[in-house]
UniProtKB/TrEMBL annotation:
InterPro entries: DUF1178 (IPR009562). This is DUF1178 family protein. It comes from the Bacteria. It holds the Pfam family DUF1178.
Length: 142
């Protein structure tokens, strides 16, 4: 019999007795191992490390995962913004004027991007002209 220190995905440590590592693997695969504290079946062998360091590692992993998720989201937003900009004319500060002209058929219907103040955007929306803010990306905000 061997004793394993086990840990669930909620960082609860507990112990289990097994006839060998194959026995552990078999029980694990069969879903027979669950955390006595939270019933989680996401159990892994702890390497006899103090529970503090296990918790720290978990936090580090979560931080890395969050960072990665954030980067993926940023990449998606960046792609979307690039696609919008590639298909739109940058009219700069003339944005409210151009948006109005397009809306009233005085200019060719096309996608435009540009700057508008909060008040200008509000006026456009009041007139039923659909405008949407482009997200400001970190590199752009300088
Ligand atoms: Zn647990």
């Amino acid at each position: 019999m061997i004793r394993y220190s086990l840990v669930c995905d909620n960082a609860h440590g507990f112990e289990g007795w097994f006839s060998g590592s194959a026995d552990f693997d078999r029980q694990m695969e069969a879903g027979l191992l669950t955390c006595p504290s939270c019933n989680s079946a996401a159990i892994s062998k702890s390497l006899m490390a103090p529970s503090v360091s296990t918790a720290q590692k978990k936090e580090e992993k979560q931080a890395v995962a969050m960072d990665l998720a954030q980067k993926q989201v940023m990449a998606k937003i960046r792609e979307a913004v690039a696609a919008i900009k590639a298909n739109a004319e940058d009219v700069g500060e003339k944005f409210p004027e151009e948006a109005r002209k397009i809306h009233y058929g005085e200019a060719d219907a096309r996608g435009i991007v540009g700057q508008a103040s909060f008040a200008e955007v509000r006026d456009l929306l009041d007139e039923g002209i659909e405008v949407a803010p482009l997200p400001i990306l970190p590199e752009d905000a300088n």
